[in-house]
């Protein structure tokens, strides 16, 4: 058994950088500030929020709470940015932190045993060259600590690992290997020279406690590999068995069984010799010191390629210059019979905590391993490491203990695998090792009835160890609460789209984990009466003379569409009320061969229909009622058409045939002109439509639900054509691929139909002084047509200055540019092309140091 | 310390050579006074060049967190002057000629770095705006001669896969594209008064940052390869008027080593005892070299190479000074050395002034 590669998936960009997030999604980004998220379960790709600076050429590693710390960036070749930022995978938000001492182009991040992050190397530019100052990002203070006594010119993207003694070991790629003591002002100490020499664009892995592999690299490339045991009395490098073929620009990936999977690279001389690709893969068993050949890949994965271990035990291999695609490798252990399973395990672990892992396969389990989530670029994974856990068995339970030595397992997110005697791993559970993980009741809960059918909840997360939040609701005077939804760990908001008009609800937010739950105080809110048609700011379409075309060039075979719709009336028995058509523009008339259609039937049933070598129709179970506002949409992949109403999947049918040959696709919103479809029963889109989004990827159920809740993550909007009632586009029209036409009039970005109405001002702004150097801001988005928000701050008697500009639908920001014991005044400014509106001002005083 | 605008200072005549070059007879016996050049209001500064008049250029952070190129002189009250920008936030000043001409890079209102030349009472001149063919997403000046010649390079495209760099020479008010010297990319790093230019060119497609070789070229002449120390990267940083070139080159083991070349193949300048890497950044008329070397403590120390000897500059200042001198970037004819160190925990530009033997 040599394993098996999946087919090649086309991705929108080259994955130069790639991280497995604690949400289970994979973030990847290219040569620009354009990150995407890939879902291993569906292979769906959606854009993630941009960082606000060019994150190409950054270093990255995970913080103890599962957020990703990103440092450096790209101005030009060898010219680095001094920026750093934190990406929250649970909220899809980036938060800037103070800049570093100078630019860093190709730095390495290392999360330290105390959760701080060491950043080393990276070029400032081609005059100053490498930044010699190691710096430590200090979580507690939100500031940088300079290791002024340890200034040294390291190679770009050096191999750095936390060693058992707590120091950081620099294993290459240069021949000299050293320890860096990050305490105080820092100190280097020589360890040993490796044997081969310069292994530039080789790779390195910490494959066991204190044991490090360096493999490949150099020019011409070498097949050799070496190891060092840092726990030996006098550590020295020794050669181990070489790979079967030389490699440079390779990736080395730790597998759940402790072996190291090597993929990609070039065996030819030169920097990135695509004429000598290595498609063969192989795996190194450190116990037997044996390399075993595995199935060859089909794509050249050279410079700028990435590979990482997925929670399901497969390896994602992607990218490389000129290779915007991915393929997934199933190692041989997935072909050795049934897999053990983990049925229950605490999500958050404290150091030394005794833990029970529930599995029906207790008797067959022979190993329990933790593998830290990956953050990989340029042939080096800056975060992966393995911890082998001892365990005992009991009835239905594996009894184990979380690592007690933080040098062996720095705090942060890990995959937990259990393996049977054949080496077959379970699907991993993602757990988090953290200091003093606590479960505390959420505070500052606010509930705002945005509409009759939507209540937005916000709260302050006071826990460090929650698995997530339950949103519980009681109706009217009842004291019986029931769960209406859940939110992920670290979440701070939720939208309840299951409310009825003119109803009083009492909410509470409950933080929970495997050991218990903690409930917030309750908050009561009343929903308004159903608004009259049009009052939500939606545009009313009659579908006959009033419709909108989006000429564009998305992938026809994979598309998602979602928007809010309020029917004015239901069609007659002989009619269909066509809300949107999506498909190929005919040569003589538009939509002669449209292949997807969303329409309302006489009984209020919503239907999504696809025409492609046949016809398939998905029907809703919900019957839409006149005057009520619904979020409707569909996701159509090459295999499945799924219909959503208010975020719930209400119909899924197989896609009947191929879309091959379709070109020049077009979305038409609100009906099919009678003149075109006179022979059909199509009529009009008789209702109000707002917040239209079109995606060139398949949205997940969770994402469609997020859209429906009105709390959509930025990522869901980022690559969409978003058409608000005011007829502006986001992103600009250049990404649309063509003009926007309304009633035959062509509009450009931001100017369609004149200036939009200014957005409504945000309300309920709550600045919270979390730390001496951090203020967390939350607010309620009252607008549906904002381009974004400006966070403005004043100190003392100074005037307001904008400290951050955020995208639409944003509701939080952490301001880490504050000083201790200082009084600040904040306001949030919602804006669009038509103007802006400011929230009331709020004052907060930061804490003492 | 006061901050002021460089271009706003009244013109003062700088007499080249008025300061007679004084060299210690034996480096080991020499000692220096060390001057903290301060900042422009922020908490960090670095010095990258010094001319024979003792004026220093470098970068400093400002009170609002920007990084600005500075010129430090002692004409009036010793002080840093902010070199300014093209309307953007940051700038860097990297080289200064004996008549006070400065070059580097400065951001415009769009955030693009643009190569500039400036002088006393002369605002920043955008070099790549002189000819529309030079418009670029990134450009910088890197070296300047007393004659007024400026060299630098520009990256021609912002898209990573299409990015290529080409060297330029600004001379007699005209900017000239000097191409890539046989490579796919080239960068010019320094120029002297007889118009000998040094730089490096790529030896690999699309990977000049991973593999490049040093060259020198007389204006209008053919580039001459300066060889290697066995590694993939050879980087010249400075040239004096006698044609002595210094820089640093990679060894086969991946470490860098300071080198010198008088036109022939580069030769290693060695390291401090116990060190594994060294760098040469500046050379004066006498051929003395300013640089940095790893020392036995595993960190970089500012050094001077003189008379075939390498000396840790930290041993030539008062032990009670509170300084750790990290790297020396420039040295002038008087033996004044500038660079970057840590003064009582703060990263600061320094200036070392020789104390003359009694």
Give the arrangement of secondary structure elements.
The complex is a heterodimer of chains A (849) and B (358).
Chain A: E1 4-5, E2 9-10, E3 17-20, E4 26-29, E5 36-38, E6 45-47, E7 58-62, E8 68-72, E9 74-76, E10 79-80, E11 84-88, E12 93-97, E13 108-111, E14 117-120, E15 123-125, E16 129-130, E17 135-138, E18 143-146, E19 159-162, E20 168-172, E21 176-181, E22 187-193, E23 203-208, E24 211-215, E25 225-229, E26 238-240, E27 251-254, E28 260-263, E29 281-285, E30 290-294, E31 305-309, E32 315-319, E33 325-330, E34 348-350, E35 354-358, E36 365-372, E37 375-377, E38 380-381, E39 386-389, E40 391-394, E41 397-401, E42 412-420, E43 429-434, E44 443-451, E45 454-460, E46 468-475, E47 482-488, E48 493-496, E49 504-513, E50 516-519, E51 523-526, E52 539-541, E53 548-551, E54 559-567, E55 577-584, E56 593-600, E57 605-611, E58 615-623, E59 630-636, E60 640-645, E61 648-654, E62 665-669, H1 674-677, E63 687-695, H2 701-709, H3 714-718, E64 721-723, E65 740-742, E66 745-747, E67 763-771, E68 774-780, E69 788-795, E70 801-806, E71 812-815, E72 823-832, E73 835-838, E74 842-845
Parallel strand pairs in A: 34-43
Antiparallel strand pairs in A: 1-33, 2-33, 3-4, 3-37, 4-5, 5-6, 7-8, 8-11, 9-10, 11-12, 13-14, 14-17, 15-16, 17-18, 19-20, 20-21, 21-22, 23-24, 24-25, 25-26, 27-28, 28-29, 29-30, 31-32, 32-33, 35-41, 36-39, 36-42, 37-38, 40-41, 42-43, 44-45, 45-48, 46-47, 46-49, 49-50, 49-51, 52-63, 53-62, 53-65, ...
Chain B: E1 3-5, E2 32-36, E3 41-50, E4 56-62, E5 67-73, E6 79-82, E7 87-96, E8 102-108, E9 113-119, E10 122-126, E11 138-144, E12 150-155, E13 165-171, E14 174-179, E15 186-191, E16 196-202, E17 212-218, E18 224-225, E19 234-239, E20 245-250, E21 256-261, E22 267-268, E23 278-283, E24 289-294, E25 300-306, E26 309-312, E27 323-331, E28 337-343, E29 346-354
Parallel strand pairs in B: 1-6
Antiparallel strand pairs in B: 2-29, 3-4, 4-5, 5-6, 7-8, 8-9, 9-10, 11-12, 12-13, 13-14, 15-16, 16-17, 17-18, 19-20, 20-21, 21-22, 23-24, 24-25, 25-26, 27-28, 28-29
């Amino acid at each position: 058994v040599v394993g098996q590669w999946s087919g090649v998936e086309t991705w929108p960009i080259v994955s130069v950088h790639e991280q497995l997030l604690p949400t289970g999604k994979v973030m990847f980004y290219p040569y620009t500030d354009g990150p995407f998220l890939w879902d291993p379960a569906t292979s769906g790709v959606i854009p993630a929020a941009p960082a606000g600076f060019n994150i190409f050429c950054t270093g990255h590693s995970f913080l103890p709470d599962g957020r990703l710390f990103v440092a450096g960036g790209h101005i030009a070749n060898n010219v680095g940015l001094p920026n750093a930022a934190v990406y929250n995978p649970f909220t899809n938000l980036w938060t800037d932190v103070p800049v570093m001492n100078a630019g860093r182009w190709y730095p390495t991040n290392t999360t330290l045993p105390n959760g701080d992050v060491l950043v080393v190397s990276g070029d400032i530019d081609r005059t100053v060259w490498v930044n010699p100052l190691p710096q430590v990002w200090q979580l507690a203070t939100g500031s940088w600590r300079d290791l002024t006594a340890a200034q040294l010119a390291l190679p770009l993207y050096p191999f750095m690992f936390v060693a058992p003694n707590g120091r950081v070991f620099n294993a290459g790629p240069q021949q000299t290997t050293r320890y860096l003591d990050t305490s105080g002002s820092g100190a280097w100490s020589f360890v040993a020279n490796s044997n081969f020499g310069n292994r530039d664009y080789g790779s390195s892995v910490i494959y066991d406690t204190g044991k490090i592999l360096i493999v490949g690299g150099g020019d011409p490339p070498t097949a050799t590999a070496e190891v060092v045991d840092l726990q030996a009395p006098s550590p020295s490098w020794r050669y181990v068995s070489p790979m079967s073929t030389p490699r440079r620009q390779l990736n080395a990936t730790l597998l759940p069984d402790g072996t190291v999977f090597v993929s990609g690279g070039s065996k030819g001389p030169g920097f990135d010799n695509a004429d000598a690709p290595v498609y063969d893969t192989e795996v190194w068993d450190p116990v037997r010191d044996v390399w075993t050949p595995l199935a060859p890949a089909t794509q050249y994965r050279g410079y700028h390629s990435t590979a990482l271990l997925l929670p399901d035990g497969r390896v994602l291999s992607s990218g490389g210059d000129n290779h915007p695609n991915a393929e997934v490798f199933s190692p041989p252990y997935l072909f050795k019979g049934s897999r053990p399973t983990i049925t229950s395990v605490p999500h958050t672990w404290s150091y030394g905590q005794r833990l029970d892992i529930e599995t029906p396969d207790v008797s067959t389990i022979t190993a329990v391993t933790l593998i830290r989530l990956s953050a990989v670029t340029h042939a080096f994974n800056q975060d992966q490491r393995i911890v082998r856990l001892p365990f005992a068995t009991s009835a239905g339970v594996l009894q184990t203990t979380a690592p007690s030595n933080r040098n062996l397992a720095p705090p942060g997110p890990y995959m937990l695998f259990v393996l049977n005697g054949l080496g077959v791993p379970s699907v991993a559970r993602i757990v988090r090792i953290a200091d003093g993980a606590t479960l505390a009741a959420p505070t500052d809960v606010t509930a705002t009835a945005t509409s009759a059918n939507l209540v937005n909840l916000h709260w302050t997360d006071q826990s460090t160890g929650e698995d997530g939040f339950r949103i519980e609701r009681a109706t009217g005077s009842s004291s019986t609460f029931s769960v209406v939804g859940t939110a992920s760990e670290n979440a701070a908001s939720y939208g309840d789209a299951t409310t009825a008009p003119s109803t009083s609800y009492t909410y509470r937010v409950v933080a929970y984990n495997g050991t218990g739950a903690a409930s917030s105080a309750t908050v009561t809110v009343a929903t308004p009466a159903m608004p009259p048609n049009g009052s939500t700011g939606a545009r009313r379409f009659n579908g006959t003379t009033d419709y909108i075309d989006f000429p564009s060039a998305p992938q026809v075979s994979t598309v998602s569409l979602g928007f809010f719709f309020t029917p004015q009336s239901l069609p007659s028995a002989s009619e269909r009320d066509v809300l949107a058509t999506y498909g190929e523009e005919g040569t003589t008339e538009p939509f002669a061969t449209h292949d997807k259609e969303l329409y309302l039937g006489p009984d209020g049933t919503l239907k999504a229909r696809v025409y492609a070598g046949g016809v398939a129709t998905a029907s809703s179970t919900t019957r839409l009622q006149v005057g009520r506002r619904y979020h409707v949409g569909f996701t159509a992949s090459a295999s499945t058409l799924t219909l959503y109403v208010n975020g719930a999947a209400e119909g899924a049918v197989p896609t009947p045939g191929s879309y091959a040959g379709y070109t020049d696709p077009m979305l038409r919103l609100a009906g099919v002109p009678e003149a075109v479809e006179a022979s059909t029963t199509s009529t009009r889109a008789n209702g109000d439509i707002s917040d239209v989004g079109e995606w060139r990827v398949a949205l997940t159920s969770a994402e469609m639900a997020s859209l429906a809740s009105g709390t959509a993550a930025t990522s869901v909007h980022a690559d969409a054509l978003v058409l608000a009632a005011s007829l502006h586009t986001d992103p600009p029209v250049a990404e649309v691929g063509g003009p926007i036409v309304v009633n035959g009039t062509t509009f450009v970005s931001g100017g369609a139909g004149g200036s939009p109405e200014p957005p409504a001002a945000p309300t309920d702004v709550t600045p919270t002084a979390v730390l001496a150097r951090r203020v967390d801001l939350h607010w309620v988005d009252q607008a549906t047509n904002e381009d974004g928000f400006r966070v403005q701050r004043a100190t003392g008697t100074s005037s307001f200055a904008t400290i951050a500009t955020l995208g639409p639908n944003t509701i939080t920001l952490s301001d880490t540019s504050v000083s201790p014991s200082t009084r600040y005044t904040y306001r949030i400014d919602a804006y669009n092309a038509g103007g802006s509106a400011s929230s009331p001002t709020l004052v907060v005083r930061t804490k003492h140091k | 310390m006061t901050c002021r605008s460089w271009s706003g200072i009244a013109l003062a005549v700088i007499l080249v050579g008025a300061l007679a070059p004084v060299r210690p007879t034996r480096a080991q016996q020499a000692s220096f006074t060390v001057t903290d050049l301060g900042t422009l209001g922020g908490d960090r500064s670095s010095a990258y060049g010094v001319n024979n008049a003792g004026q220093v250029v470098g970068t400093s952070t400002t009170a609002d967190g920007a990084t600005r190129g500075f010129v430090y002189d002692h004409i009036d009250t010793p002080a840093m002057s902010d070199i300014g920008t093209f309307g953007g936030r940051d700038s860097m000043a990297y080289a200064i000629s004996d008549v006070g001409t400065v070059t580097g890079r400065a951001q415009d209102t769009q955030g693009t770095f643009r190569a500039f030349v400036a002088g006393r009472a002369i605002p920043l001149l955008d070099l790549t705006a002189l000819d529309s063919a030079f418009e670029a997403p990134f450009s910088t000046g890197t070296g300047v001669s007393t004659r007024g010649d400026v060299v630098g390079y520009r990256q021609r495209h912002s898209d990573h896969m299409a990015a290529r760099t080409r060297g330029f020479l600004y001379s007699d008010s005209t900017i000239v594209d000097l191409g890539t010297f046989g490579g796919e990319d080239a960068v010019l790093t320094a120029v002297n008064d007889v118009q000998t230019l040094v730089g490096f060119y790529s030896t690999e497609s699309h990977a000049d940052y991973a593999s490049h070789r040093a060259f020198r070229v007389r204006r209008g002449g053919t580039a001459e390869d300066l060889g290697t120390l066995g590694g993939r990267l050879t980087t010249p940083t400075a040239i004096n008027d006698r044609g002595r070139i210094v820089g640093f080159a990679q060894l086969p083991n991946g470490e860098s080593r300071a080198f010198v070349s008088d036109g022939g193949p580069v030769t290693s300048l060695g390291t401090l005892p116990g060190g594994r890497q060294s760098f040469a950044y500046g050379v004066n008329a006498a051929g003395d070299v300013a640089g940095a070397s790893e020392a036995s403590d595993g960190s970089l120390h500012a050094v001077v190479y003189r008379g075939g000897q390498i000396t840790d500059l930290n041993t030539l200042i008062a032990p009670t000074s509170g300084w750790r001198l990290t790297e020396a970037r420039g040295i002038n004819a008087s033996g004044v050395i500038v660079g970057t160190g840590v003064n009582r925990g703060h990263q600061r530009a320094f200036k070392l002034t020789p104390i003359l033997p009694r």
